[in-house]
Amino acid sequence: MTLDELGPDNRATVVALEIRGTQRRRLMDLGLLPGTEVRVDMTSPLGDPTAYLVRDGLIALRRSQARAVHVEVRDGSERQ
Amino acid sequence: MSNAHLLDQAAALRDDLPADFQDGIVESIYADAAAISSHTVSRDSQRARLTADRLLDRALTHRVWGFAVMGVLFFAVFWFTIVGAAAPSAWLYTLLVDNGHAWLRDGFVALGSPAWLTGILIDGAYLGTAWVTAVMLPPMAIFFPLFTLLEDFGYLPRVAFNLDRLFSAAGTHGKQSLSMMMGYGCNAAGVTATRIIDSPRERLIAIITNNFSICNGRWPTLILMGTIFIGALAPPALGSVVAAGSVVTVAVIGVLTTLLVSWALSKTVLRGQTSAYSLELPPYRRPQLWRTLHTSLIDRTLFVLRRALLMAAPAGAVIWLISNVDVGGTSVAAHVVGALDPLGLALGLNGVILLAYIVAIPANEIIIPTILMLTMTLGSGMSGAQNGVMIELGPAQTETVLIQIGGWTLLTAINLMLFSLLHNPCSTTILTIWNETKSLKWTSLATLLPLTLAFAVTFLTATVARLAGWV
Amino acid sequence: MTSGFQASSAGPACTSCAIYNSANLAKLGVETGDYDYVAAVAGNPNTGKSTVFNALTGLRQHVGNWPGKTVARAEGGFTYRGLGYKLVDLPGTYSLLSTSNDEEIARDFLLFGRPDVTIAVVDSTRLERNLNLVLQILQITDRVVVALNLMDESQRHGITIDVRHLGRELGVPVVPMAARKGEGLPELLEAVEQVATRQPATSVRRVKQRNAALERAVATLSDKLGQAFPGLPNTRWVALRLLEGDPSTEQAVRDGTLGDLGRGAAEAGSARPTGTAAR
Ligand SMILES: Nc1nc2c(ncn2[C@@H]2O[C@H](COP(=O)(O)OP(=O)(O)O)[C@@H](O)[C@H]2O)c(=O)[nH]1
Ligand SMILES: [Mg+2]
Q: Pairing relation of β-strands C74-80 and C83-89?
């Protein structure tokens, strides 16, 4: 599944980034690379973008970008 | 000597590397970072964010409350500015404009200064400067600290987060809203702030539309029009609220214009992909009250004021000159105003306003004093003002002058507000755009597009108002 | 390394450091005049770089709680124990590898401005993410002091950092601080002086490429660069950039400006040999 499909308060691990070039580099510089744990923190009132917790930082990504990040939901994801 | 062989060698070595070696570079660094931090950092809980921050974010980015709070906060900033500035402005006015001017003038006359010198220096340069000080200093001294407190708290990125969907739909970069917010202080600063946008296409859109963020040079015009024409329509108790409301409305029209123009640009001359967007939302931090007051008062306010004064003094002198140099029995100013009147009236404005905007290309700050002065000089003569003497009027008399001598209507006031919002950026901003783009084409577009829009919109509202018989 | 934080008595300890501090520090504002050393303030966005800069120079660079507040370079000066420093506040950057217009200013200054000391300001509540940049900086220069800022916030978050261990891992001085309160400034000045005046540490952390082929390619090319440009300090980094095909580095090799890096450090401060990054 991709990052934009991740439910609130679910934890997941990045498995692949499906973009190339500078955009890929940018995401990686923010700390979003294969193996990184991510979590949905909150969604904009207009539905997009969504803010994710990545390595203790709160980073907002638009849906079009989150769609390019493939993730795997981790077992034992807590539910609120 | 050529080092090209090094580049060739690099290319050859590259061919032997796996396709994804570039990822490997970043991954190696992060693996190291993770290893180091796992050895050195320990935490007593797994919470990633403070509960207070999370709760605050729930509220400030809430579907309903998020927007409500945003509206109330910005409205409050303007309301405080309008209400809080009234008394100090009046006081400065009495001190600098009423008494200071008379006192200086008497001094000059007593020293035997020729009439033209007294005219240029005292009735022109000094009065222009005094007027700008009295009208601009108090609102700026209130507006900047309030805005800086919001900024220090960490609220601005939340606004960007809340509104991003709109910017995304307009085909622009998410960080454009941040450069816009800097534009509310000064458009030149806003244009420089667009450097945070990586994509050249989206950066140009942000530069061209920054003009629609109302800079501090324009707030006084809007506040004055809002207070004496629109606030006056309401019962006295509600006057300041209605006035603040009208100013906020113009600001919102500015945001909508930004979105609309951005959208149009990204569909035409600046077509292309919307690039990656990532915005880090910082934690909330307690603003440093004293430091903020100090910084925004001493630095921002005085800096902007100094600029205004540097522009106001020569402009005051120019106005005195064009009002007092006669060609064929009529002053230069009267000739120009006469020529501009047909166009001005078609736009729901008048020739005086257009001439004022020409004189005020270096700085928007001096629009209102210029308009008042020209109106009184060129008016029917009932005021008995000397030619080209900048006005010595409080807001109440200002209204009388504009309506009775200038023939202003509510339409004139509203269209002046719209024109002030839309028209071309000031010369400092134009220069900054040139420095940032180094392109004649984009600098001209950024100058002429707003001007054209200002003409078109005011013409439209004037025509509609006339056809509907409102004026 | 002494620290008000590790001793967990930040309050009282710092009343005395203010006095200690003011005895040796003279804030010079924008007056950089004659200086002995150039120090750069670098780091991720919103980590307190401008706050550190202001505390040292007595200037009032705008500080704001959002990433992207500083987009241009600001300069100021101070003297400490009789030595003059020019301090340069750089825009925040997440990485030296990919850059937007504001980040390019920071990268070019670190690479080509050759500061004598780079103060890497780090957010102690997000150490891992910040170390990404620190490790990159360590690849191009070993004259680095890490300012572990926002210690007051990480304490509130219940985060403890083993500062000594971090310093050993990185091979450069690490100074815990809370720049907004002025805590840790005396120690920072001390460390800056030490790095500026003495031989740089030899044990600086250099990230090894985990891909063996890449590591070999970097080593080969780095040797060649060392021959072509004797004295070039960061050949491994340049080699990596060339392998990646970075346009501005390629340009610097082609027209020979890369060679200037081996020479005069401080003087090159204002020159920007690369204006050619892909736009
Ligand atoms: N609590 C706390 N806040 C700080 C400290 N240093 C800086 N800040 C705040 O962090 C924010 C970013 O600071 P700034 O100097 O503009 O960061 P820059 O973007 O790296 O230049 C501002 O709101 C500062 O007031 C600190 O030591 N403690
Ligand atoms: Mg800064």
A: antiparallel
